[in-house]
Write a structure and sequence with these properties.
The protein has helices spanning 2-26, 44-63, 83-95, 108-120, 149-152, 154-163, 177-193, 211-219, 231-243, 259-265, 292-306, 312-327, 340-351; strands at 31-37, 72-78, 101-104, 124-127, 142-144, 169-174, 199-203, 224-228, 250-252, 273-276, 355-358, 363-365, 380-385, 388-391. It is α/β, with parallel strands linked by helices. The protein folds into 2 domains: 31-148 and 292-365, Response regulator (Rossmann fold), CATH 3.40.50; 151-283 and 380-391, Response regulator (Rossmann fold), CATH 3.40.50.2300. The strands form 4 sheets. Strands 2-1-3-4-5 form a 5-stranded parallel sheet, with helices on both faces. The chain has a 4-stranded parallel sheet with strand order 7-6-8-9, sandwiched between helices. The chain has a 3-stranded antiparallel sheet with strand order 10-13-14. Helix 2 links the parallel strand 1 and strand 2 (72-78).
């Protein structure tokens, strides 16, 4: 009796083993991608849109069968728009979730604060902010999909002011990591153009009153103003400037581009010029533009689901699509549950050799010395017209 019971149990266990193996073979472990973004806090409008973009890209890839026969699975964490929380999230993504890449990171401060943690964990940190400055070298584990201000915004905006008749350009920036990169780009751009800034002012991200700085700018004799700030504080600067009698052209760095800007600023921001990735103005692009197809696809899908378009989903859409491209060259036999260290290393190396990928932020060509992968001209000048962002040339 005992012998018969033992044989029956062995048969059952064998069946369960075969069945489990078949299930695992049919549903192999997914590749885990970890996201840290400011879903709450002062950059919430950016973080929410970024999460949406990632989910849209993941849905598209997984519906097509995933990569190497495996699905992509995302875990999302709210960094509350605080760099210190970004660091905690990064450590969790690497050590607990065993993700193959750290993604999201919509702020410069959060990206840079987390780089060392990603480096220690030998895991790719894929920023959705201008966290890498052109010409300053690369960090092995840090990549971005967003061009820095020297490539994509500040020189274009200074030229716009000069083309509109400005002779003395003033600059004001938010005193954050993003703002400090902006003032660097402003000084370098002025130097290359052979012009001297009228004045440079800064303000705290918590500032409730910027009238002293605007009064200094007005007294400087400037006839054009460039702002590097985030959404709400940039509107505050523009409002104060107009209230204090500044009537000359104002342009703004690219962190403000999205539907919330015109919604919050109303008539006050009509005519404000900035720069953007092309998806924001997909409808205005000529049919000959090589990016129009992907830009229109993202624009139409996002508008259908969320009714208004922001540029921020384009950043995480690019991240996910680029990761998928790099994963195709990873050894498909490697198991994400056991071999994630090897997958992380191969993924990083493959991304560094990726060329000619047509994304939302531009055409990507990464290399060992270039972890931005984008060239000048990837962003286009845009303007608020009748409450909507439009391609400036239209």
């Amino acid at each position: 009796m005992k012998k018969s019971l033992f044989i029956a149990m062995a048969i059952c266990l064998g069946f369960l083993f075969v069945f489990s193996s078949a299930v695992l073979a049919k549903n192999p472990a997914p590749y885990i991608l970890g996201f840290s973004s400011g879903i709450t806090g002062r950059r919430a409008e950016m973080g929410i849109a970024s999460k949406r973009g990632a989910l849209m890209a993941l849905k598209e890839i997984n519906a097509a069968g995933g990569v190497n026969g495996r699905q992509l699975k995302a875990v999302f964490y709210d960094d509350q728009s605080q760099p210190v929380v970004c660091v905690k999230n990064t450590k969790r993504i690497i050590d607990v979730d065993k993700a193959i890449a750290c993604m999201g990171y919509i702020s410069v401060g959060g990206s840079l604060a987390s780089v060392q943690t990603a480096t220690d964990g030998q895991t790719l940190l894929f920023s959705a902010a201008p966290a890498i400055v052109t010409g300053t070298g690369t960090k092995k584990w840090l990549f971005t999909v967003v061009p820095d201000q020297m490539i994509a915004s500040v020189p274009i905006l200074i030229k716009n002011l000069l083309d509109r008749g400005a002779k003395k350009v003033a600059y004001i920036y938010v005193d954050t990591a993003y703002g400090k990169l902006g003032v660097r780009a402003f000084n370098l751009s002025c130097e290359k153009l052979g012009i001297k800034p009228a004045i440079i002012e800064k303000y705290s991200p918590q500032a409730v009153d910027v009238s002293p700085q605007i009064a200094h700018i007005k007294a400087s004799g400037a006839d054009g103003l460039l702002i590097t700030g985030n959404l709400a504080d940039t509107i505050k600067v523009i409002k104060t400037a107009r209230e204090l009698g500044i009537t000359y052209p104002i342009v703004s760095d690219y962190a403000i581009v999205g539907p919330e800007f015109s919604k919050l600023g109303g008539k006050l921001v009509e005519g404000i010029v900035s720069t953007s990735l092309k998806a924001l103005v997909a409808l205005d692009l000529p049919d000959t533009d090589v990016q129009k197809k992907v830009a229109m696809e993202l624009y139409n899908d996002y508008m259908k689901k969320y009714k208004t378009f922001s540029l921020y989903p384009g950043h995480t859409w690019d991240q996910v699509m680029l990761i998928a491209q790099a994963l195709k060259k990873v050894d498909p036999k490697l198991d994400p549950t056991k071999d994630f260290i090897k997958i992380r290393a191969q993924l990083r190396d493959n991304l560094e050799t990726l060329e000619g990928f047509v994304g939302q932020n531009g055409i990507f060509n990464y290399s060992a010395t270039d972890h931005i992968g984008l060239a000048k001209g990837c962003y286009v000048p845009v303007v608020v017209r009748n409450g909507k962002w439009r391609l400036l040339s239209k």
